[in-house]
């Protein structure tokens, strides 16, 4: 120890070697470690059902539990369902759920903005490879000038370990 | 003091085995950072155009000559009129008609808001009409459809002369 105290360089070299070894040990662990990235999959799409335009438009909302509400001059005609998703990841990890908005279109150049509301903003993952489910609601804003048609679109769901 | 010197002073107190243990801890720390993954969701909605309903014809019973006893005048959806006993009926009657516009191919429900309507001469005299339609649902072929409304007018005994008018309303909704 006395020699070490007067010769710090071998010790420093040992630290860097250890750190390097850490990287070597750590790298292959990423591939097989259950602590790898979580995954999210869609089990059921969000369906706002059918709505009839009227007046100056309004908003249609499907809650994460599937309840439907319309405002303004819109008439909700039903047929809605909340979306369903599942996260798979390492047990006991806390994940945050982030959802992007979407522009739905009818394939003819007409667009409709949608924002989404997950049932959970964060979630503690259960053990094993169990799918951790959550649901997704959303809100559409329709102007009175919107054109009739079938609209659809995609959005991103990001899950991240906290 | 540089960082290197700081590390040097700390490390002299540790054996190589201890350094190895620190390495293992660092390795675990290295493989459990925050990870994220993205997936796609899809959303869909079907938008129907607003329904418009316009009256295409009035329910018109024609000109009626009352009698000393009450009776009825019926106008079918076809426009055919049945003049009650003792009454005189003139002019050409018409059934009520409505034109519906909406999204092509959609089915709409049709209903009368009330089964009766009251006609008044603007004074104190009135008559009631029983309304009916055989149309309960309508397919908007080509984005439009039509339906008729029949009526039976209840004419009182020695009904006062005059021009009697009234209103009724219908409801049309997507199903």
Task: Explain how this protein is built.
The complex is a heterodimer of chains A (162) and B (175). Chain A has 2 helices and 12 strands; from the N terminus they run ααββββββββββββ. Chain A is of the alpha+beta class. Chain A has 2 domains: 31 residues; 123 residues, Immunoglobulin-like, CATH 2.60.40. The N terminus of chain A is likely disordered. Helices cover 14% and strands 44% of the residues of chain B. In chain B, strands 2, 4, 5, 7, 9, 10 and 12 form a 7-stranded antiparallel beta sheet that branches. In chain B, β4 and β5 form a beta hairpin. The two termini of chain B are 80 Å apart. At the A-B interface, α2, β1, β2, β9 and β11 of A face α1, α2 and β1 of B.
How do the strands and helices of this protein lay out in sequence?
The complex is a heterodimer of chains A (162) and B (175).
Chain A: H1 2-6, H2 8-32, E1 39-44, E2 46-52, E3 57-62, E4 68-70, E5 75-76, E6 83-88, E7 94-99, E8 102-105, E9 111-118, E10 122-124, E11 132-143, E12 149-161
Antiparallel strand pairs in A: 1-6, 2-5, 3-4, 3-11, 6-11, 7-10, 7-12, 8-9, 9-11
Chain B: H1 3-11, H2 16-31, E1 36-48, E2 52-57, E3 63-65, E4 71-75, E5 81-83, E6 88-90, E7 96-101, E8 107-112, E9 116-120, E10 126-132, E11 137-139, E12 144-155, E13 170-174
Antiparallel strand pairs in B: 2-7, 3-6, 4-5, 4-12, 7-12, 8-11, 8-13, 9-10, 10-12
In short:
Chain A is built from 2 helices and 12 strands.
């Amino acid at each position: 120890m006395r020699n070490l105290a007067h010769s710090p360089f071998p010790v420093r070299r040992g630290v860097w070697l250890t750190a390097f070894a850490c990287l070597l040990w750590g790298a292959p662990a990423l591939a097989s470690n259950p602590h790898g990235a979580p995954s999210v999959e869609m089990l059921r799409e969000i369906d706002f059902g059918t709505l009839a335009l009227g007046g100056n438009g309004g908003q249609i909302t499907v809650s994460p539990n599937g309840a439907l509400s319309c405002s303004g001059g819109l008439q909700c005609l039903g047929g809605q369902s909340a979306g369903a998703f599942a996260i798979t990841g390492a047990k006991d990890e806390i994940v945050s759920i982030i959802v992007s908005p979407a522009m739905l279109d009818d394939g003819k150049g007409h667009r409709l903005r949608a924002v989404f509301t997950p049932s959970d903003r964060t979630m503690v993952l259960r053990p094993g490879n169990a799918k951790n489910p959550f649901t997704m609601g959303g809100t559409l804003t329709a102007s009175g000038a919107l054109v009739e048609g079938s609209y659809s679109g995609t959005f991103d769901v990001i899950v991240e370990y906290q | 003091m540089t960082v290197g010197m700081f590390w040097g002073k700390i490390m002299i107190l540790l054996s190589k085995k201890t350094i190895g243990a620190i390495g293992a801890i660092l390795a675990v720390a290295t493989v459990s950072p925050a990870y994220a993954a993205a997936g796609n969701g899809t959303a869909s909605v079907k938008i129907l155009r607003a329904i418009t309903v316009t009256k295409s014809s009035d329910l018109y019973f024609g000109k009626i000559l009352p009698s000393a006893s009450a009776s009825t005048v019926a106008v079918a959806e076809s426009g055919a009129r049945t003049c009650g006993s003792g009454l005189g009926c003139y002019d050409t009657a018409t059934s009520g008609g409505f034109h519906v516009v909406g999204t092509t191919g959609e089915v709409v429900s049709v209903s009368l808001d009330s089964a009766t309507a009251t006609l008044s001469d603007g004074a104190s005299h009135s008559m009631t009409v029983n309304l009916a339609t055989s149309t309960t649902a309508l397919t908007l072929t080509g984005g439009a459809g039509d339906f008729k409304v029949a009526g039976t007018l209840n004419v009182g005994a020695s009904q006062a002369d005059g021009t009697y008018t009234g209103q009724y309303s219908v409801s049309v909704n997507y199903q």
